[in-house]
Amino acid sequence: MQATAYTYDADTRSGSVLLDDGTPVPFDAPAFDAGGLRLLRPGQRVRIETEGDGGSLRVTLVTLVTLQTF
User: Fold this and answer.
1) Residues contacting residue 37 through CB under 8 Å, at least 6 positions apart
2) For residue 2, what pLDDT is reported?
């Protein structure tokens, strides 16, 4: 699934993303670290993996969207 980076705190390596419907979903340091990123800027398009649904939805992986050319 894709989302847009909304907030990011470099000290805690946590923040939040906005789903395409505008729903904010937080992520923690383990989700950020799982993607191998070093920095995230608000507005960047990201790929996320999630668990749960509704109020218990949580991000388990954040990584950058890469474009493939053929």
Assistant:
1) 62, 63, 64
2) 95
pTM: 0.86
Question: Assign residue 65 a region: left if phi > 0, alpha if psi is -120 to 50, beta otherwise?
Answer: beta
Residues contacting 25, CB < 8 A, separation 6+:
3, 16, 17, 18, 19, 48, 50, 57, 58, 59
Contact 46, 62 (CB under 8 A): yes
Token pair for 17:
């993303």
pLDDT tens-place string over residues 9-33:
999 999 999 999 999 999 999 999 9
| Residue 19 structure tokens | 């789903």
